[in-house]
Specification:
The complex is a heterodimer of chains A (290) and B (267). Chain A is mainly alpha-helical. Chain A is built from 13 helices and three strands, in the order E-H-E-E-H-H-H-H-H-H-H-H-H-H-H-H. In chain A, strands 2-3 form a two-stranded antiparallel ribbon. In chain A, strand 2 and strand 3 form a beta hairpin. Chain A is globular. Chain B is mostly helical. Chain B has two domains: 47 residues, no CATH class; 209 residues, Orthogonal Bundle (MetI-like fold). The chains are: A mainly alpha (290), B mainly alpha (267). Strand 1 of chain A pairs parallel with strand 1 of chain B, so a sheet runs across the interface.
C-alpha cells in the first residue's frame, strides 16, 4: 500500500516548519558558534577550532557520567515500556473506571518537575517521610543521601512513578484505536489472548509505542530537574548524569565554549540513538505486519 | 476470575501511584514546622493556611493565570499546525518527507541548559520577552514535533480506503478532513491535546527564561518558597496540589475521546 505521490503535500507541512524552525535554527547556530570560540571578554572572541571538543572528549568525568546515563536510560526503558503496556491492557474499556483510571494516571505527569523532586525528598526521608520510614520499619536501612545504591533506587522509583503513566496513556489510546472488527475476526479464528496481543494489538500499537519509546529515551537521557533536586548528583558523583554535569561545567566554570561543545556532542548521541531505535522499530513492525 | 486478578493488580498499582500524591496533599494541609518535626499519616492539625496564602497573594494566583494562558495558546497553536502536517506525513510521499519527519523530533533532543541563552537573545531581539506569546512560541519547539508524531501514528491507523471513498463521493480535502477524518481520530487528538498541555505546563526552563514579571509561570513563582530560613514545604506542596488541577480537568474533558477510540461504523 504505497502512499500517494504528491509534492503539493508540502503546503500542509509549511506551517509546522515555520513554527519549529523559528525557534530551532538560530539558537542552534549560536551554540555551534560558542563551541568553536573562546570568549576572552564581552565582544572579544578568538576562534579555537576543535579545541573545546577535544577537551570534552577526553574528560574522564564525562565518560563516567555517560555510562551512568546509559545505565539509567536503559533501566528506564526496560521497566517503563512493559509496565506501561501491561497497565494499558489491564485498564477497563468502559464505565466509570475509564475516567477514573485516566485521571489518576495523569496526576504524576502534571506536577512541575522541580516540585516532584522536592516532594520525593520529604517522601523518602527516613524520619518524616512515608516511604523512607516504611522501609526502615521493615528493618532495611535506607538513606538516599548516604548510599549510592539507595540514591539510584530512589531515583528509579521516582522516575518509574513519574513517567510510566505516559507510556500507559499512549498505549491505552493506541489500544482503543484498534477497530472492533479485528477482535471479532480473532475471536472467530479462536485466537488465544496471547496471540491476539502479539499479532493484533502489538503491531497496531507500533506507532504509539515508537513515540513512547523515543520520548522516554530522550527525556530520561536528558533528565535534569528531578535528580538535581532530589540528590544533587550525589552521594559523591553517583547520580551525576550528563545534564547535571553539563550544568556544572556551564555555570561552575563560566565556560560557554566547552559547555557548548559538550551540548553538541550530547545532542548528537541522543540523535544517533533515537535514529537507530526509530529504524529498528520501523522494520520490526514491517516484519510482523501481514 | 482472570478479570478480577487484573483489576486487583491495577488497583494495587493505582494505590502505589497515589501514595506520593497523597503525601503531597498531606504536606499541603500542615504547617512547615509540623512537616519537619513529625511523621503523621494524616494531618493531625489540618490547616488551610497554605492554600489561603496562594489564593490571596496576587504573585501566586497570577502565576497560575499566566501559566494557563500561555499553555492554552501553545496547545492551540500546536494542534492547529500539526493536524494538516500529520495528515501529509501519513498520506502522501513527497520530496524529503522522511527526513523532515525525523528532523522535527530532533528538536526535542538537545540538552536545554546551554540553548537557553541564545533563546533569550533571539526573543529579546524581536521584542517578545515577558509576553505569553514568547513562551507559547518557544515551547512549540518541542510540542509541535510531538503533536505531529502522535497524530501521524493515529492517522496511519485509519485505512486509506476511507479517504478514497470520500473523495469519490465528491468531498474536497478540507471538508473531508474536518467533517470525517478528525472525528475518526478523535482519540489521537485528545491524547495529543493532553500531552501538549502537559509538556507545556511542566516545562520551566523556557518559561522562566523568557519571562520577567508579567508573564511569570507558576513554576517560577514556586521557587519563592525557598527563603533564607529554608524551604516552605507546606506552601510548596499546596502549590503542587493546585498545579495538578488544570491538567486533570483537561484529561477529564478529553477522556471520552480517548476511551471511545475508533468507530468505523459512523462513516
Amino acid at each position: 500500500m504505497g502512499k500517494w505521490e504528491n509534492n503539493k503535500a508540502w503546503f500542509l507541512v509549511v506551517p509546522v516548519l515555520v513554527f519549529v524552525a523559528f525557534s530551532a535554527i538560530i539558537p542552534l547556530m549560536t551554540v555551534v558558534n560558542y563551541s568553536v570560540q573562546d570568549i576572552l571578554a564581552p565582544g572579544q572572541t578568538v576562534f579555537v577550532g576543535t579545541e573545546w571538543f577535544k577537551k570534552v572528549v577526553h574528560d574522564y568525568r564525562l565518560h563516567d557520567a555517560l555510562w551512568r546515563q546509559f545505565l539509567f536510560s536503559g533501566l528506564v526503558l526496560l521497566i517503563e515500556m512493559p509496565l506501561g503496556i501491561l497497565i494499558a491492557l489491564a485498564m477497563p474499556k468502559k464505565g466509570w473506571g475509564v475516567s477514573f483510571s485516566l485521571v489518576v494516571l495523569a496526576l504524576p505527569l502534571l506536577i512541575p518537575w522541580n516540585t516532584i523532586g522536592s516532594i520525593w525528598i520529604i517522601f523518602t526521608r527516613p524520619d518524616i517521610g512515608l516511604f523512607g520510614a516504611a522501609i526502615n520499619k521493615l528493618g532495611i536501612p535506607f538513606d538516599h543521601t548516604r548510599t549510592a545504591l539507595d540514591a539510584w533506587i530512589t531515583l528509579m522509583l521516582m522516575e518509574v512513578w513519574h513517567w510510566t503513566p505516559l507510556v500507559a496513556l499512549l498505549a491505552y489510546a493506541g489500544l482503543r484505536a484498534i477497530p472492533e472488527m479485528y477482535y471479532q475476526a480473532a475471536k472467530i479464528d479462536g485466537a488465544s489472548a496471547w496471540s491476539t496481543f502479539f499479532y493484533i494489538q502489538l503491531p497496531k500499537m507500533r506507532g504509539v509505542l515508537t513515540i513512547a519509546l523515543l520520548l522516554r529515551f530522550m527525556d530520561s537521557f536528558l533528565i535534569y530537574a528531578e535528580p538535581f533536586v532530589l540528590t544533587g548528583g550525589g552521594p559523591g558523583d553517583a547520580t551525576t548524569f550528563l545534564s547535571i554535569y553539563l550544568v556544572k561545567i556551564a555555570t561552575g566554570q563560566f565556560d560557554v565554549g566547552p559547555a557548548a561543545a559538550f551540548s553538541l556532542i550530547y545532542f548528537l548521541i541522543v540523535l544517533l540513538l533515537c535514529f537507530v531505535f526509530y529504524q529498528v522499530l520501523q522494520n520490526v513492525g514491517k516484519g510482523a505486519k501481514v | 476470575m482472570k478479570g478480577n486478578k487484573k483489576m486487583i493488580a491495577l488497583g494495587i498499582y493505582f494505590i502505589l501511584l497515589f501514595l506520593p500524591i497523597y503525601w503531597m496533599l498531606n504536606m499541603s494541609l500542615r504547617s512547615n514546622a509540623d512537616i519537619l518535626s513529625t511523621l503523621t499519616l494524616y494531618p493531625a492539625d489540618p490547616t488551610l493556611k497554605n492554600y489561603i496564602k496562594i489564593f490571596t497573594d496576587s504573585d501566586w494566583y497570577s502565576g497560575f493565570i499566566n501559566s494557563i494562558i500561555y499553555v492554552t495558546m501553545n496547545t492551540m497553536i500546536s494542534l492547529t499546525v500539526a493536524l494538516p502536517a500529520a495528515y501529509a506525513f501519513s498520506r502522501y510521499s513527497f520530496l524529503g518527507d522522511k527526513q523532515i519527519f525525523f528532523w522535527l523530533l530532533t528538536n526535542r533532543m538537545a540538552p536545554a541548559a546551554v540553548f537557553v541563552l541564545p533563546f533569550f537573545e533571539l526573543y529579546s531581539a524581536i521584542g517578545l520577552i515577558d509576553t505569553y506569546l514568547a513562551v507559547a512560541l518557544a515551547q512549540c519547539l518541542f510540542n509541535v514535533p510531538l503533536a505531529v508524531w502522535i497524530l501521524e501514528g493515529f492517522m496511519s491507523g485509519v485505512p486509506r480506503e476511507i479517504d478514497e471513498t470520500a473523495f469519490i463521493d465528491g468531498y474536497s480535502l478540507p471538508r473531508f478532513f474536518v467533517t470525517i477524518f478528525i472525528p475518526l481520530i478523535r482519540a489521537g487528538v485528545g491524547v495529543t491535546a493532553f500531552f501538549c498541555f502537559m509538556f507545556s505546563w511542566v516545562e520551566l526552563l523556557f518559561a522562566r527564561t523568557l519571562t520577567v514579571t508579567s508573564a511569570k509561570p507558576i513554576g517560577a513563582v514556586m521557587t519563592r518558597t525557598i527563603s533564607a530560613t529554608g524551604l516552605d514545604w507546606g506552601l510548596m506542596a499546596a502549590a503542587g496540589v493546585l498545579t495538578i488541577v488544570p491538567g486533570a480537568l483537561v484529561i477529564w474533558f478529553v477522556r471520552n475521546y480517548m476511551a471511545k477510540g475508533f468507530a468505523l461504523g459512523r462513516v
